[in-house]
Amino acid sequence: MSTLSTQEILQAGLDDWRPLAGTLRARFATGSFVAGLRLVEAVTEAAEAANHHPDVTLTYPHVDLSLVSHDVGALTERDVDLARTISGIAADQGVSADPAAPTVLELALDTADREAVAPFWAAVLTGDAGNVDGDDVVDPSGRVPLLWLQGTQAHEEPRQRFHLDVWVAPDVAPARITAATKAGGQVVDDSHAPSFTVLADAEGNKACVCTVLDRA
């Protein structure tokens, strides 16, 4: 199936949906968990009938949905059709969309040596140094945002810096720290462990592996 351009998506009349980072996303303000579950159940039936399935997040006040044709890595008519179907289901159930709400968080790191830092960030963010796809560190399970490694010229002092707090379960933290160090990182400060341990990649960019232990 051919992919759709951004302009084609924008002209599709999907008032409830927004194209973001290669996906179609919508939030429906259900107002209660029961109403949200009712919407998700109806969407599930429609998705099964279409053999095309959205990613769904059900919370107390709303339901978030994301559509993409994974087999082609882009948006297709299947996504548009299912988006229309889902909007119809929501309307039938008296559930309104919040078109301004959909948001995608992606992280960007300025680096002159992707090969040196990518395994570290894959390990500290996902626990697996192999979760690198080209210029991106990706989490197949969707727990953390995508990290884009933006190429730059080498420089002594990074022009862009960021600090990340990566919260994990206490029993996961030691393995996560070990994976990060094996992937080319180093422990900068463990004086506050197990509350948090400061790690750095080969260029000095830092992240804290955090747990709930030893906190006020």
From TrEMBL:
Superkingdom classification of source:
Bacteria
Catalytic activity field = (4aS,6R)-4a-hydroxy-L-erythro-5,6,7,8-tetrahydrobiopterin = (6R)-L-erythro-6,7-dihydrobiopterin + H2O
Give the matching SUPFAM superfamilies: PCD-like
Could you tell me which InterPro entries the record lists for this protein? Glyas_Bleomycin-R_OHBP_Dase (IPR029068), Glyoxalase_6 (IPR041581), PCD_sf (IPR036428), Pterin_deHydtase (IPR001533)
One GO MF annotation is:
4-alpha-hydroxytetrahydrobiopterin dehydratase activity
Q: Where is the Glyoxalase-like domain?
A: 107-210
Q: In the Enzyme Commission scheme, what number(s) does this protein have? A: 4.2.1.96
Q: What class of enzyme is it?
A: lyase
Biological-process GO terms, alphabetical: tetrahydrobiopterin biosynthetic process
Q: Which Pfam families match?
A: Glyoxalase_6, Pterin_4a
Q: Does the keyword Lyase apply?
A: yes
Which keywords fit this entry according to its UniProt record? Lyase
Q: Report the family membership.
A: Belongs to the pterin-4-alpha-carbinolamine dehydratase family.
Protein name (Swiss-Prot/TrEMBL): Putative pterin-4-alpha-carbinolamine dehydratase
UniProt organism field: Janibacter alkaliphilus
